[in-house]
Each structure stands twice: as C-alpha cells, then as structure tokens.
Amino acid sequence: MINKNLLSIVIIIVLSTNVMSQDFFEKGQYIQPNFLDKNYLVDKNFDVLHYKLDAFLAMEDSSFSGDMNIKVLITQQSDSITLNALGLVFTSLKVNDIDANYNMYSSQEKFTVFLPRTYNASETLDVKISYYRDLTTLNLPYNKKGYYWFRKNLDSKIEENIGYTMSEPYDARLWMPCFDDPSDKATCEINVTVPDGYQAGSNGLLIDVIQNPNNTLTYKWREDLPIATYLMVISASRYSIYKQYYKRVSNPSDSIEIVNYMWQVDSAGSTWNAVQAFTRVPYMMEIFSTIFGEYPFVKYGHAVAYPFYYGGMEHQTLTTIHRGWISVNAYPFYDDYIAHELAHQWWGNLVTCRTFKDIWLNEGFATYSEILWREMAFGIQSRDELLNRYTRFSDQSWQYAIYDPESQGLYLFTSNVYQKAGWVLHMLRNLVGDSLFFDILMNYRNLHAYGTATTEDFINVVNSTTQKDYNWFFNQWIYGRGWLKLAYETSYDENLKDFIISIAQVQDNSWPTYKMPIDIKFYFTNKDTIITIWDSLRVQNFVFNFQNRPDSIKIDPDKKVLKQIISQPVLVENNHIQNFYLYQNYPNPFNSTTEIRFDLLSNSYVKLIVYNLLGSEVQTLLDEYKPAGFYSIKFNAEKFSTGVYYYRLLTFPKDTKKLPIQSKDNSAQIRKMILIK
Ligand SMILES: [Zn+2]
Questions:
Q1: Cis link prior to 169 (omega < 30° from 0)?
Q2: Residue range(s) defining the domain that contains residue 653
Q3: Distance between CA atoms of 424 and 359, rounded to whole angstroms?
Q4: pLDDT at 156 (0 to 100)
Q5: Residue 49 · residue 72 · CB < 8 Å
Q6: C-alpha to C-alpha distance for 323 and 300, rounded to whole angstroms
Q7: Separation of 7 CA from ligand 1 center, angstroms?
C-alpha cells in the first residue's frame, strides 16, 4: 500500500502542475480514516479454506449486502469458532445449512458461532451468513470504511457513482464476515451483482458475467491461489476497460491479461490518461519476473479510484490506485509507485507478512523493488537518485525500530517500514553481494510462496543462503532503533607516515552501536583508492600507512550504508580519551613472524585480534587484563597464506569486570600488515 502521507515529495513537485494539488490534499468533507481499531485475534481452532461471497451493490446509494459462505477446517476439537465482523447486521447464520446460534461482540469486532455439535480435528464445515452493512452506529467518518461509495458529481471530479473496498490492515471485516488476519490465507470466489451498465472487478479470473432478469449483472470472480482477507477487493463503477498483455518471461507464448478499469474520460484523455500511465507495466512485469521469479498470479490490472484516501493498494491481481496517478501532467512520476504496487504481488501477496508486526516484509520489499526497477530500467544513476530521495533522516518515524511499529506507538504505515526498510535491503545486498542477495530473494519466495512469513523466517533464509549468521545485522537494523550517525576526524603523522581516521558513532545511546563495513575513498594527486573498514565501536581509530597524506577522503562514496555524517569533534561528544598507541608491526611486510608493539597508558583490559582482508577474525593474540606499559607481541603466521591482514587493539576500562562487547567507553585502533611467503 502507499499512503498519501508518504507522497509529500511528490506533492511538492506536482503542485505547479495545478491538476494534482487537490487530489492529495483532500477537501474538508473527506476525513482520513482512523486506524486506532485493534485487531482482535482469537484463539484459533480452525483454518479457513475458502470464502465464497455473493455481494450486492446498489450503486445508487451506499447499500451493500452479501451472502458469505466460509468453508472451515477444524484443527482442534471444538464446539464454537470465532470470526471477525464489524458494522454488519446478520439476517441469517447457518452451519451446514442448519440455523446456528451466534454471539456478536461488536466492541471486539468479532462474533462467535456455536456449532450444532462438537467437531473433531480435520472435519470441515460451511458457515453461511446473510448480512447487510449498517455502519450508522459506529460513528465512522461518513459511514465509510471497508466499503466506500460516492455519488457522481458530489465533487466535480467524481465522474460516475463509484463503490470500492479498501481493507488493509483491519477493515475487511467491515464488508464481509471473515477471519480477518493475514496469517490465514484461503482461496476465494467473489460474485458481485451491480445494476446494468456497471463493471465490477475483483481478485483472480473473471469466470462469467450473468445478465439477471432484474436489470442487474453478476460478475463472477474466482481466485484459486491463496489470498489474505486484506487483499480481497471489489471495485465497481461505470468503468471502461483498457487491456494490456504481459508475455511470461518463463514462457513467452503464454501471455496474461492486464485488465485496467477507469472512467471513460480517463482512458486516454488530456487530463487523465491511463493508457499513458500504464505504458510500462508489461515491462515492469518482465523485469520483476526476471529478478523475483515468474509473476505468480493469473492476471494483473488496476482499478482507478476517486475519491481515494490512499495512494495505491496492492489488491491481489487488481491494484487500486488514486486517480492522480494517471494524471497526464505527472507522467511518468508515478511509475515508481505503479512498480511498487506491482512488486507487492510478489512481496505481500505471494509471500504475505504473517503479522502486521512484520509489515516491513511487505512495504520495505515493495519500496526496494522501486529502487531495483529504477536500476534495471534506467541504470545506477537513476537508482541512486531515488535512494537519495528515500533517505529521510528528518522523518520522526525513522527514530524507531522497523519491527512492530504499533507496539512503539507508531501508525502502521510510516516511512520507517517503507523507505528505511528499503534501505536495509539495499545494505543487505551490499553486504552479501548481488549474487547471494538475489538468491536470498528467490529462496525466500520459494520457501514461503502462497503462504506467509515472519521477520525471523526471512532472517533464516538469509543465514541459510549465505551459510553465515547475519542476526547481528537484523538486530541492529530491524529490531534496533534509528540509524548510524558518524563524526570523523583525520590526522597525519609525518614521521610514522600514518594517516589516522578517528570515527565516532554519535547516535543516541539508546540506538545500537552499529557494526558495518564502510568504504573509505582516499584521493591522492594522481590516483585514488578505496579501502573497506569494519566500523563497530562508538569511537574507533583506523591507521593507514601512506607515503603521502591523502588530499581528501570520502566516507562511503557509493552510498552503501544508511548513515548520516555529522559535523562535530569526534572525541568531545563521547568524552573519550584513547589510552594506548599501537605501532606499525615490524618487520612489515613479513615472512612468517612479526612483532606487534603498543604503549598502554593505563591499566586496562586488552584485546589484540588479527583479521583477514574480509574482516573475519583469524587469531586472538591477547585477551586479558594488562598493567600500563610497553608491549611487544609476536604474531606467528606460519599457518596463514600470503595476503593483507589487519590487527586491531581494543582496550576497556580497568574496572571492567566482564568484557563489554560494545561499550561506549572502549576504544580501538586498527593497522594493516602484509604477509608474503
Ligand atoms: Zn506498499
């Protein structure tokens, strides 16, 4: 989903075009729905297998009635089941065609069905409910939520009466009884009856259109692939249809339809132009199918909505978008968002977040897909332009952890789970490399296709694909708050030819101390060179032995890390005084043994560790308490192969009982040495 709040930058850019401005600053009569309602989960003793909904939309007013048939598999012996509904009046409820008792708990948005007998695990049953919507007692804005209906000409831009559903995260229960939680996916049939002249779109394939004797039409839709309730949709108006085709990359002779619904004046008009806006959709499907695996559903398409309180919503196989996205003047500005909703068909719809705590698995992935679309279609420069636009340190939500926004008092959909989470995926890609990154996406897809996944499921795929433990990465970037804030200073020792970069992580102490590889680019008169360091402490010195002082340096020149460079003295903020000096090893380069020497200025706990070029520890030379003094430690490299190694000295305050791994009071220095055999 893309929420209007996330579109602020777009608004600024398109304001001058005059057409768009009003669409995103809604007029007074439209109120942003509130999202304070909670998802009342129940102890679940069943699994929904299939929803069959017959929905009747009057279209001349907001009335909506339905016959819902829910096929349920009992998973634990039980004599009742509890489902969700809100604002629905039941006129009958039957279990296997027999009237059954039920209790409605409106304040908890749920109802309990008392089964006619005790059902055992693995038995199935049908719950049939006839109902109509009556939201008058709920005090919702204009009785709209879940199902939205607007009259033609109520606003000069409403061309025809329009009715559509919008459910994410918790509003499907406002238009159909269901188990309204993303963890339980089922198949569905949605049959929509509307007056003659109206079109009604929904999920999956259009199986039939029936002309009824009472001047109504019934559109019969069927989605045979599992779908979460928040992804089910009905979109109805006097629409015209514009079809495109996508030739499957896995089988070009198989093409699937892209069915787009819009008002007649919008299809190729001078103000709104869907044909133009959707031009690149088949190409987007081609690109995403190439990098994420084949498009996982049997059709795609868009339904254009206005008024619409959101930007876009990735309903399975039929994305709903705001009319503003097909504005002629804004083209091709909304391509990124059109790509975002399309990417959700993989990340959100094929693999669904199991809980809304894991919403970043939907939104961060869809946002990063925009970045990938830019890169694949237009190149690195275009990609980096978008990445740059998506770096939003001033956004308050970025100060929080990405995981579980609502438990931190955040609205579920903020830039934190979109752009910041997209950045986390970009960092992961830089960390593991392209080949493994795209393997991770493919393995994640294959393992959880047509099902659901949690953050831990994704981390498990990352670890198993790379054969490494990346929990530390997710602990800091997904479960931890904030982002990396760096301050740095440089100095050059003419005698020792040492260039020293002191880097401080100056983010709030309640945020993680980040461990990240960071490229440093050194510019010399006739050349430049990039060296990757592993930053992992609140204050850290990196020493490079250069014959000449570099003219300048650039931290993270290719923008691989989500970091903010702060201009401030390194040592003041952290009140840090380094209590040792680490000398260049001697001899260097060396053949099999070398001496590593350091001055320790105060009694400290000391660690001296040797790393290989990839930053992996190869040997710990010291890990003990030492009194102040001069030390010379022998490093025997007989069992190591030729190459570049680093040695790093860390000290911790002398009263440290237990060695802190990431204390802000410790300090470290690192040097390079060369082994030649
Ligand atoms: Zn989204």
A1: yes
A2: 580-675
A3: 14
A4: 85
A5: yes
A6: 18
A7: 12
Between the CA of 629 and the centroid of ligand 1 the distance, in Å, is 59
Q: Is residue 652 part of a domain?
A: yes
Residue 647 alpha carbon to ligand 1 centre in Å: 45
Query: What CATH number does residue 497 fall under?
Result: 2.60.40.1840
Edge-first strand listing for the sheet containing 580-582: 580-582, 593-600, 629-636
- Extract long-range pairs of 316-319: CB within 8 Å, 24+ residues apart: 316/203, 316/204, 316/223, 316/225, 316/227, 316/231, 316/232, 316/233, 316/345, 316/349, 317/203, 317/204, 317/223, 317/345, 318/201, 318/202, 318/203, 318/233, 318/235, 318/259, 319/344
Same domain for 470 and 499? no
pLDDT at 666: 56
Q: Give the end-to-end CA distance of the chain in Å, rounded to a whole number.
A: 58
Residue 291 lies in a domain: no
Q: State pTM to two decimals.
A: 0.84
Q: What confidence tier does 571 reach under pLDDT thresholds 50, 70, 90? A: low
Same domain as 444, residue 306: no
Q: How far is the CA of 418 from the centre of ligand 1 (A)?
A: 8
Q: Do 88 and 177 meet the contact criterion of CB atoms below 8 Å apart?
A: yes
Mean pLDDT for the stretch of residues 306-318: 94
Task: Report the CATH number at residue 169.
Answer: 2.60.40.1730
Confidence tier at 39 by pLDDT (50, 70, 90): very low
Distance CA 371, CA 390 (A): 10
pLDDT number for residue 23 = 29
Instruction: Compute the distance from residue 625 Cα to the ligand 1 centre, in Å.
Output: 52
Tell me the CA–centroid distance for residue 237 and ligand 1, in Å.
24
- Cα of 342 vs centre of ligand 1, distance in Å, is 9
The highest-confidence range among 159-168, 539-548, 594-603, by mean pLDDT, is 159-168
Ligand 1 midpoint to CA 363 (Å) = 5
Residue 172 is assigned to a structural domain of this protein: yes
Q: How far is the CA of 314 from the centre of ligand 1 (A)?
A: 7
Report CA(340)–ligand 1 centroid distance (Å): 6
Structure tokens at 1: 């989903």
280, part of any domain: no
Q: What is the pLDDT of the chain when averaged over all its residues?
A: 89
Centre of ligand 1 from the C-alpha of residue 168, in Å = 10
Report pLDDT for 4.
61
Instruction: Report how far ligand 1's centroid is from the alpha carbon of 201 (Å).
Output: 20
Instruction: Check residue 577 and give its pLDDT.
Output: 54
Structure confidence at residue 162 (pLDDT): 97
| Res. 658: pLDDT tops 50 | no
| Sign of the four-CA dihedral 228, 189, 282, 271 | negative
Whether residues 587 and 558 share a domain: the answer is no
For the segment 7-18, the average pLDDT, to the nearest whole number, is: 38
Task: Locate 96 and state its tokens.
Answer: 């296997």
Can you tell me the distance from the alpha carbon of 201 to that of 13, in angstroms, rounded to the nearest whole number? Answer: 32
Statement to judge: residues 524 and 460 lie in one domain = no
- What is the full DSSP assignment across 34-60? P-----------EEEEEEEEEEEE-SS
Whether residues 451 and 529 fall in one domain: no
Structural domains of the chain, count? 4
Distance 436 CA to ligand 1 centre (A): 25
Strands 216-227 and 234-237: unpaired
What tens digit of pLDDT does each residue of 391-433 get? 999 999 999 999 999 999 998 999 999 999 999 999 999 999 9
From the list 194, 232, 186, the residue with the least C-alpha distance to 212 is 194
Q: Are residues 259 and 305 in the same domain?
A: yes
Reply yes or no: is the peptide bond before residue 307 cis, omega within 30 of 0: yes
